[in-house]
From TrEMBL:
Organism of origin: Kribbella sindirgiensis
GO molecular function: 4 iron, 4 sulfur cluster binding; 7,8-didemethyl-8-hydroxy-5-deazariboflavin synthase activity; metal ion binding
SMART domains hit by this protein: Elp3
PANTHER family per record: FO SYNTHASE (COFH), LIPOYL SYNTHASE 2
Protein name: MSMEG_0568 family radical SAM protein
Cofactor(s) named in the record: [4Fe-4S] cluster
Alphabetized UniProt keyword annotations: 4Fe-4S, Iron, Iron-sulfur, Metal-binding, S-adenosyl-L-methionine
Matches recorded under SUPFAM superfamilies: Radical SAM enzymes (SSF102114)
Gene3D superfamilies: Aldolase class I
Radical SAM core domain residues: 94-331
């Protein structure tokens, strides 16, 4: 599969019935979950896309592209309910074919309309009744054990809305990681947080058993950050750099990642140069095309995904830098870069 084709599929989406999908929640993209040529892929489900999936293959305007594609099947753990009466699906979701993902705290102090990230709808899934506000360590352990046993889950991602404490929610993840690993020893887990005011919590997360960590900045351009993340941009880039450096010291090189979003208006050359500086720090820049979700301010404003050519160009250049540094997303062990579904980097060899 050419990177150009993968970029078009990421932007234009595909026509397919995907049993596993996400329409709202934390982060910058929703989509249907598929397996494309054996790899996880999240792609927009678009009724008039030029790309169609049928009989396990992808067609473009009637031409078979020679790609094997299968929708991820609905996992069996979705049919279960916790001992305290909460459906498992409200506690954690399947991402790709083998990743369990959860937002441990589904509220965020930055979700007021004047401060919220314009690409995020973390509280919309809560308002829709698709999840619960806070998941307990016991609930997460129960669901993780079932997902591994019934559906072959091989890794887990734990993120959180930002809280008021100096740790910004990280210590909730410490307790959650410990509980899950007590129930499923050895399960690789990535945690995702804002830079904590107290960097010692990074060691606590590692000591609890977290495999890798995502500290997501989304853009390295302060003007872009103020426009797209008015609340989160009050955390300075200097704080991010300090957190990344300490995380690399604690977790190791290429066990730390950050999202960089394509489509926020950042200069492409500066985005790639910034990715290069992250790589020099030992941080994996997970470049992802913006695909505005339902319930986001971006979607309400009519923002659309970036052009496929731009996605292809930036991804190819960042992938080349990662290859030169011998950094692969799969080597993170757990998390977004290890899964690779939301980005084209794995298709580009990174």
């Amino acid at each position: 599969m050419s990177l150009a084709t993968r970029a078009e599929m990421a932007v234009y989406g595909v026509q397919v019935d995907a049993p596993v999908r996400r329409s709202k929640g934390a982060g910058p993209s929703d989509d249907g979950h598929l397996v494309v040529d054996g790899a996880n892929a999240t792609l927009p489900i678009v009724a008039d896309s030029p790309y169609q999936v049928r009989d396990g293959a992808v067609f473009r305007n009637g031409l078979n592209l020679g790609l094997s594609v299968e929708p991820v099947r609905r996992p069996r753990f979705y049919d279960l309910t916790t001992a305290d009466g909460v459906p498992y699906q409200q506690i954690a979701l399947l991402h790709g074919k083998d990743v369990l993902a959860t937002t441990v705290v589904q509220t965020c102090i930055r979700y007021d309309e004047s401060t919220r990230c314009r690409f995020c709808s973390i509280e919309e899934s809560l308002r829709a009744g698709a999840t619960i506000a806070a998941k307990t360590p016991a609930q997460l352990a129960e669901v993780a054990e079932a997902a591994v046993r019934l559906d072959g889950v091989t890794q887990m991602v734990m993120t959180t809305g930002t809280t008021t404490g100096r740790d910004r929610g990280a210590r909730n993840l410490v307790r959650s990681v410990r509980a899950v690993l007590a129930a499923v020893p050895g399960l690789p887990i990535q945690v995702q947080i804002e830079p904590p005011g107290d960097l010692s919590v990074l060691t606590e997360l590692r000591d609890a058993g977290a495999t890798s960590i995502g500290i997501h900045v989304e853009s390295l351009d302060d003007a872009v950050r103020r426009k797209w993340m008015p609340g989160k941009s009050t955390v300075s880039l200097a704080e991010y750099e300090a957190a990344w450096d300490e995380a690399v010291r604690v977790f190791g090189r290429n066990r730390v990642s950050t999202y960089l979003l394509i489509g926020l208006g950042e200069d492409p050359d500066e985005l790639v140069a910034g990715a290069g500086r992250l790589i020099e720090r030992g941080v994996y820049p997970f470049v992802v095309p913006l695909r505005p979700m339902l319930g986001t301010l971006a979607r309400a404003d009519g923002v659309v995904a970036p052009e496929p050519a731009l996605v292809r160009d930036i991804t190819a250049r960042v992938a080349a830098l990662l290859a030169d540094a011998e950094m692969r997303g799969a080597d993170q062990g757990a998390g977004c870069a290890a899964c690779g579904a939301c980005s084209l980097l794995s298709a580009a060899g990174a």
